[in-house]
Amino acid sequence: MDPTYIRGCFQPSLPKMASNSVDQPLEFERSIKAIADSSNLEAVPSKFNIANDYTALPSDSIPLLDFSSLISADPHQRTKAVQDLAEASRVWGFFILVNHGIPESLMKDAIAAVRDFFNLPESEKKQYESKSVLDSIQCGNLTLVNTSNQSFTFWREYLRLRVHPDFHCPHHPQHLREIVMDYSKKIRELYMKIMEAAVEYLELDKHYVDQVLKMDSMAQMVVGNCLLTFLINNGVEGLQIEHDGKWFNVQSPPNSILVNVDDHFEILTNGRFKSLKHRAVVNKERERISLVVLNTPAWDAIVGPAAPLVDKDGSALYHSMEYKQYLETSIAQSRLGGKSFFEQQLIIQDI
């Protein structure tokens, strides 16, 4: 069976330190939260210092998609919503989902439950320390290597849970299990409706897509590359996306869900929908909690451009690969500042 994952991310605000402090060795076995909460911290360890410019422009142009229109019985209203979905996926690769039907109270409870997990003692979280991207429950932080072979750790702590078709969850906090189960189920229902609309726009046979992606054993993946990602946060913004060569800050209305097209949806559509670069930045004053549900093909599905679309276009623009292999390889080859594994899947056409 193929897994479904849900991810919670914790980004503490940067600790206040003396201006003349210098980098000092720390016990890196401690979580980022423990380091940030330390009462005697004199400097942020150098391994967290990633030299990048994270300035971005404000944006109110990210499309809003009314989910109630997408499932409307009014054919004109639904047709317009399908067109809006396609346009957002083609131009921005992101859209803000409103009127989605998930209670605001459940979304707040989900964020609170994730925060409660990060507040657990270090000894309890350590038992879920990540050993493999395929682990059912994972807790830790992400370290990448840049093109100069320097190692950097992100100022972020994560929790990853496989919740479908087999459900996995830490024993504590006790309320986490029920909340995550309810929330992830509702996200799956949204995902299936959105996929149905996208497939309709692409004029693909729904059964063809279900068969190719093995939707009966679909996964909601945590990391790597996926089809649609659903994100909420605790009201502290920090996500930025790249559009037309510029970076923009994402500001989502209350009780909305940010959805983005990910790499494999771009591959499936042979480039019609776009997976844009995005990043999360640290808020200097407030901690940021985000809860992400990523929906992917089954792990043993071979994902490539849909054959009917390749026939229309005359050629495939991307290589095909088993999703599990893609996931493992893309993480193993992740580098700061280098070409992503996804970019390597683009077929260079001979002219």
Automatic annotation (TrEMBL):
Pfam families: 2OG-FeII_Oxy, DIOX_N. Signal peptide: none annotated. Keywords: Iron, Metal-binding, Oxidoreductase. Transmembrane segments: none annotated. PROSITE patterns: FE2OG_OXY. Gene3D superfamilies: B-lactam Antibiotic, Isopenicillin N Synthase, Chain (2.60.120.330). InterPro entries: DIOX_N (IPR026992), IPNS-like_FE2OG_OXY (IPR044861), IPNS-like_sf (IPR027443), Oxoglu/Fe-dep_dioxygenase_dom (IPR005123), Plant_2OG-oxidoreductases (IPR050295). This is Fe2OG dioxygenase domain-containing protein.
